[in-house]
């Protein structure tokens, strides 16, 4: 809070009731804990139920499933069996953890000493990426109009989480603007069907994972007998290099999986049988896919990229930007179609199979 320019000091004094640590923070935190947080949870659960009732459940593509219905399973025995199995799995994992796992063994680290930089303590997992961002940020600070701006705290601890959640909340609206698709969608997209979206998601996961690992760089350096400074620079470089690399690899993998499915639609499933053709060669026999699988594979539909002309003459630059992004999203594609299979792969028994 103190790193926020101009108003950071006032925010800190308001939260803590004076100079840090203050005397009002614990009573205020108690009130928030017993009143505001439970009320917020109840409100969010209610909102979730309302949205489920209004928007209905999503479902995977399949025969008889559309964006206007919900095809489920009977309560007994299918749904009950799945729920019972999940209950026993969760109970078993919790029982094993309760028997063998330690919770915050502070006695291992010994008493707190101010002269020891790292005592092996680590933050909770949900704020570990913030710890990593603080450790990776170089020590930058500037003085403007008598105010010292500590970028090494402001950027990783304030701006980064705000940007992270802003991107998560804004992405659905951004993709709808890029594609121009404003309809309702209740059929789930398989990751391979949306290569760019999947690539961006994997890039975000890699970005988060690098920050999470960087939050324990001192433990990693001590455990593997590495230089802490070298490891920090490895994480800094990885934070810039690995997310784009993960995006490109994921996108190509998704497109390759689409191409593989296109071949399966055209040729059928490989049977592992080799048959001799009339010309004396050999061809692998293929069996046609069942109707359910063919329906799922053919349900992938991607919109065409927008034309590279500005739809709004008042904002031509925005129109060209939107068209460019649309081309980036859907330019690389594998259209779902079923060309006529070649005679050599049609599964004909040939001379020796008659």
Mean pLDDT, to the nearest integer, reads 85
Low-confidence stretches: 338-354
Main structural class: mainly alpha
Secondary-structure element string = HHEHHEEHEHHHEEHH
Distance between the termini: 81 Å
Strand order of the largest sheet: 1-4
How many β-strands, per DSSP?
6
Largest sheet: 2 strands, parallel
Instruction: Using the CA coordinates, give the radius of gyration.
Output: 28 Å
Please, could you describe this protein's structure?
By secondary structure, the chain is mainly alpha-helical. It has a domain of 55 residues. The protein is 55% helix and 7% strand. It contains 10 helices and 6 strands; from the N terminus they run ααβααββαβαααββαα. It has a two-stranded parallel sheet with strand order 1-4. The C terminus is likely disordered.
Task: List the keywords.
mainly alpha, two-stranded antiparallel sheet, 6 strands, 55% helix, extended
Compact summary:
With 354 residues, this protein is mostly helical.
What is the secondary structure topology, with strand pairs?
Elements (H helix, E strand, L loop, with lengths): L7 H9 L8 H31 L3 E2 L14 H26 L27 H9 L4 E4 L2 E4 H29 L7 E2 L6 H20 L2 H7 L4 H40 L1 E8 L5 E6 L3 H8 L17 H15 L24
Parallel strand pairs: 1-4
Antiparallel strand pairs: 2-3, 5-6
